[in-house]
Amino acid sequence: MSESTETRSQRASRRAGEFPPAPEPLPQPVLDSHTHLDITVSEAGVPGGSTAAEPVAAAIEVAAAVGVDRLVQVGVDVDSSRWGAEVAEKYPAVLATVALHPNEAPRLADLDAALREIEALAARDRVRGVGETGMDSYRTGDEGRAAQEESFRAHIAIAKRYGKTLVIHDRDAHADVLRILDDEGAPDTVVLHCFSGDAEFAAECVRRGYLLSFAGTVTFASAGALREAAALTPLDQILVETDAPYLTPVPHRGRPNASYLIPLTVRALAATTGTDLDELCAAISTTGERAFGPWH
């Protein structure tokens, strides 16, 4: 399996810079459909440099101040999934998803045992999604592909058994993702996290009824194809996310990301789609509640 040449400590060091200033608040509240609060607070800290005893509470408060009043905390392994489920039970602004990341599956000595733990967590009420799962041809080589696909198929089955939204990680694997979803039969609700495809792939996902979640990447100068994909996506199939602490939107690319920066991505999407900002915020909020259920 291919591994990133950058270590976890190096990634943490790169994201240890100062958080950007807060953007102008949104006119209506929205949600961050995909964030990693655990990684954010441990590697980058809390926006504003807070040293609060409750860093998660501080991050939620900063986000709420700009109109991001609901967060979806996403699991990538057993430990982070368990942590997210517990955080969602503690904080009303947070819901959780649980999963083994596609690059995690080939590393596990006992994939079946890990999947059993994920399934047990998926049964909890405040866990509303199974993900991020999927396929990744960028960091996992051919030798790890079978385990990755086995894990993805198992996550699809868990999502369907418990009636949970499936949250998909798809990196350089568009055709495989669609093939496996078509083979297994998709759950009622599917979210393409950090949508990275072009207009053609977007059209295939839209036709299947999937939700496309756009991250800060849609603001990058090089992301013309991604903006074309966003422009053809119906409003009721659009979500927005940070994937914090990654993928910080322009003009702060390279600095730590957090949920309070969602307004930058929402405004970029409004410009890209030609949609009134209030209308887009309302649509994102409604779609988020449809995908993950009520927060309160």
Automatic annotation (TrEMBL):
Keyword terms, alphabetized: Hydrolase, Metal-binding
PROSITE patterns: TATD_3
InterPro entries named in the record: DNase_TatD-rel_CS, Metal_Hydrolase, TatD-like, TatD/YcfH-like
Domain of life: Bacteria
GO function terms (MF aspect): DNA nuclease activity; hydrolase activity, acting on ester bonds; metal ion binding
Chain sites annotated for binding a divalent metal cation 1: 34, 36, 132, 243
Keyword Cell membrane among UniProt keywords: no
Listed Gene3D superfamilies: Metal-dependent hydrolases
Chain ranges passing through the membrane: none
Segments of this protein annotated with the region Disordered: 1-32
Positions bound to a divalent metal cation 2: 169, 193
CDD domains documented for this protein: TatD_DNAse
One Gene Ontology term, aspect cellular component: cytosol
Name recorded for this polypeptide: AraC family transcriptional regulator
Protein source organism: Micromonospora craterilacus
Highest classification ranks of the organism: Bacteria, Bacillati, Actinomycetota, Actinomycetes, Micromonosporales
